[in-house]
Amino acid sequence: MAEPQPQPRVTDPALPEQLLMVPGPTPVPPEVRAYGAAPLINHRSQPFRDLYHRVHDQLRQVFQTRHDVFVWPASGTGVLECALVNCFSPGDRILSLPMGAFGERFAEIAEAFGLDVVRRPVDYGQSVDPAALAELLRGDSRFKGVLVTFNETSTGVLVDLPAVARVVREHAPEALLLVDAVSGLGGADLRTDAWGCDVVITGSQKALMTPPGLGALAVGPRAMAASEAARLPRSYWDWRPYREMAHHGETPYTPAVSLWYELDAALRRILAEGLPAVLARHLAMRAVARAAFPAAGFPLLTSDADGSPTVTAARLPEGVAFADLSAALDRRGVTIAGGMGPLRGKMLRIGHMTGHTTADLLRFFRVFDEVLGELGAPGAGKAGPAAEAAAAEAHL
To answer: Hey, what CATH class is 30-271 in?
Structure first.
């Protein structure tokens, strides 16, 4: 297939470029963004079939799976629903392990479809304890599925997924393990097949550095087999028609062709750098953020062991209001995210995913220092130098 040719883009002066440091959507590199303006093609044509196969082959490498991968025109929340309705039947008992707002959302979707959801949340900023999980599973043999968030966007916690998966396989071997990896895939090591994950779910707008609008799932053979017996209502979300048409290189319904172009360009960029190098770069950016915030008097929400490679959350020190901090950053063209749920108004979050560069991160902390000075915060002037030192140590 001939490469779609990027077209010139016109920047709307009413929409100035911002340094978008929220944990999604993340910045889209210009060379990826340009493909969104390529001419549309017929989605029932050989050029699209070539694009389809190329995107799926690349996604398998990022998911680290040999099995089925599906792409929907949807948000991450949409494909969370897709995973549930394809795997379960009304009344099935499901164990939910929420670590924050997005883990709660996964459980809420399951409850909306009449599943018997047993929630075992952990405090915001904490991770799932594999030993406690083992005890839960030993005490109840009825679980048909386990829901876990790989990387909790609302708190910046990365779960020990290999340990969780081992516990599920050992103590609930018939249960399906469904993993929300919306803000983790592509930024943290996730070995779908090797770790025994049955369904892994992600979205385009995080570490895959593509605009919002595409949801993707990696589906293992156990989940595929379960979908034949599942009785939850499904039509648009039914992945069986997707599988039937996969060998044709087509989707059952109209795909978001322009976003497929951009996802293809983003995946080619990730794989050209090499997935191990991409993952190492995320760990280095995590080190920068985790050095800079405490230096300025902003305690980290999570431990080093649980800290996410894609999102860092820090508590606000006394005397610094999030509204004031956010507004002052906005005036300088920088956008951050605040706390969610019980941590609203008590913390801040930044993203440092594939679309973010080292220059973005260092610029952020320089501006952060300026704003702290404006607000009269004691830590003013300390975040930037700490970030620079950590970046140099990490060879960024």
So the answer is: alpha beta
